[in-house]
């Protein structure tokens, strides 16, 4: 075997340097310190997509069904995230979170959330109207839940530290390197990267917005498709940096995977408003008007897309209207904080949620994985994926261990 060929052979290749891919790659090196491990990322920096465009919240696990991967990963992930930040000097703030009910229906839903928190073993406190006012003089509501373990952090800084640790430990990180093709044989996986081909014994794909396209490269049966949803944010002016003391969330509709427009204290001291959930027409479209013909073509050919639209057309219309009609967006905030005015909603970067949708139009609410003999793919990593990145990485490695012993 030539030296050139030897240099292109790895034990494990990880695709995607968002926080899930970085956590997985770093933990792989800890478990297999003698392995050659390559992490590839098509962008010029790590954490450029979902990881770098979220609210920065360390979630506690309020919403998730007991026994689900979400509930388990989120609680363990929150503890692991805070421990990692303490170990490496990354600032975080455990400011706590208030879920505010503004009417009788929301209060009823709030009480169901309270029971779920108890089932999940979370510390949670019910507040009446007066207790809410004591904690948040600028917030109005009939009742609230207080979850003290929720925090805020810069996930971008966590990604940068993970990349640094990965390389220090002997891992290879290739930025600006796009996967163009995958070909799996009985013995290894060939990966075409830009104009280079590398080979690996095993492949882990954390492709986020491109997850379904990576599985299709290997002809893995794929009964889902990634449908992008834009989460649009605004930032409040500096005069409102002390408007709230906690993270302020509405009581969500249990039939939807989105948490509603909330006020988020950011780790830099500012306060953001958002996000909404608008149908995206470009998987990586962060501008105001975004259309990608391939992304649109893939969506309209997918039967689950049309079934999703039919199932949620009312919500879709409302979200789209509020996206273009700023007073409609503002009304979502003024339900619980009427001190915010139209002029306070200042421009802030949008995010894109990679939502897996099944052929029947149903939304995938939990984590979803698929695999072949030598590859493992994270197909759906919804919020709280950033909070859960460390246990997700450990889970992936355990599944990879199973594959290694069976091949």
UniProtKB/TrEMBL annotation:
GO cellular component: cytoplasm
Keyword field: FAD, Flavoprotein, Membrane, Oxidoreductase, Transmembrane, Transmembrane helix
FAD dependent oxidoreductase domain mapped to chain residues: 11-398
Gene Ontology molecular function, alphabetical: (S)-2-hydroxyglutarate dehydrogenase activity
The protein's required cofactors: FAD
Pfam family membership, one: DAO
Transmembrane segments: 12-29
Record InterPro entries: FAD-dep_OxRdtase (IPR006076), FAD/NAD-bd_sf (IPR036188)
Family stated for the protein in its record: Belongs to the L2HGDH family.
Protein name per the record: L-2-hydroxyglutarate oxidase
Species assigned in the record: Marinomonas rhizomae
